[in-house]
């Protein structure tokens, strides 16, 4: 065989991956079981923490949504010149306490009736919303004034001020998740809305 041909054959042999032969070994059953146990242990420790973080995130997001709704209602009242409110009522199902909400506009000193819908009354600006349907396990737990008295709505006037008669400010809306984590949204009499 010529030197050139011999060199070409050796080059090709080097490029072909080695095949498993009798002297090479794979993974033992013990090694595979050990890897599975380690992965399962890491998952068992990490998953509950991840689920808790997801619930806290949903609660924080639900509180942020409520703060956004209050600001939206305040803006609607200021731009239209008519009083608007976020009205709360007890949820029709699910854990208690639970509140759902909708946005309404006052017309001729009268608020829409509880049974009215956006289709039957133009002053009902949206259907009832339950945070639990949007953020699994999260709910509006309560709306209270500083004295701890339950409040059913937050009303804004054309100047953007919150004008709930007889309420002591700030009003505090509490959003909670299924494991008890809570976030609050405060509404001040001058109209300030914040998530502390």
Describe it.
The structure is a single chain. The chain is an alpha+beta fold. It has one domain: 3-Layer(bab) Sandwich (minor pseudopilin epsh fold). It has 3 helices and 7 strands; from the N terminus they run H-H-E-E-H-E-E-E-E-E. The strands form 2 sheets. Strands 3-5-6-7 form a 4-stranded antiparallel β-sheet. A 3-stranded antiparallel β-sheet has the order 2-1-4, with helices on one face. The chain is elongated, with a radius of gyration of 31 Å. It starts with a helix and ends with a strand.
Topology:
Layout: H1 3-15, H2 29-80, E1 84-90, E2 99-105, H3 131-134, E3 138-144, E4 153-156, E5 171-177, E6 182-187, E7 193-194
Antiparallel strand pairs: 1-2, 1-4, 3-5, 5-6, 6-7
What general outline do the C-alpha atoms trace?
elongated
Question: In what range is the share of β-strand residues?
Answer: 15-25%
Helical content stands at 25-40%
Oligomer: single chain
Q: What structural category arises from helix and sheet content? A: alpha+beta
List keywords for this structure.
elongated; 20% strand; alpha+beta; 7 strands
Give a brief outline of the structure.
The protein is α+β, with helices and mostly antiparallel strands. Helix content is 35%, strand content 20%.
């Amino acid at each position: 065989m010529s030197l050139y041909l011999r060199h070409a054959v050796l080059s090709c042999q080097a490029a072909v991956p080695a095949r498993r032969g009798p002297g090479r070994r794979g993974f033992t059953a013990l090694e595979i079981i050990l890897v599975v146990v380690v992965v399962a242990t890491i998952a068992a420790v990490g998953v509950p923490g991840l689920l808790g973080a997801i619930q806290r995130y949903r609660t924080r997001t639900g509180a942020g949504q409520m703060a956004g709704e209050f600001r939206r209602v305040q803006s609607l009242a200021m731009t239209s010149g008519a009083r608007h409110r976020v009205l709360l009522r007890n949820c029709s199902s699910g854990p208690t306490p639970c509140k759902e909400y909708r946005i309404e506009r006052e017309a001729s000193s009268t608020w829409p009736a509880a049974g009215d819908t956006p289709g039957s009354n133009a002053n009902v600006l949206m259907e009832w919303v339950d945070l639990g349907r949007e953020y699994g396990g999260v709910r509006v737990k309560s709306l209270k004034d500083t004295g701890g008295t339950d409040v059913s709505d937050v009303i804004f006037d054309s100047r953007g001020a919150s004008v709930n008669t007889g309420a002591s400010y700030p009003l505090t809306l509490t959003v909670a998740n299924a494991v008890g984590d809570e976030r609050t949204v405060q509404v001040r009499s001058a109209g300030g809305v914040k998530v502390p």
